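job 3f2a | input accepted
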Amino acid sequence: MERQQYLYRGDRRYNVLLGEQALYTDLGGPDVLRGQLDRLLAVVSLPRLSLGIIPAGPRTTYGPATPSSCSMNAP
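job 3f2a | predicted structure (75 res):
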């Protein structure tokens, strides 16, 4: 949990991209999944965090990360 403090410190921005299936993957039982989803809902409202969901559907190939599709704010 200590590493989550980076979400609240400094002026870094975080762009997170999740596959939709990650929202349904149950590793640890329903209480663990519920806790993970609750935490995700809590941090998604932070102004420095943007969250994108890749919808599940037909198989899709995504190209390699390029500067226009991937961003990182390094110290």
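job 3f2a | Residues 30-43 form the longest helix (14 residues).
job 3f2a | closed
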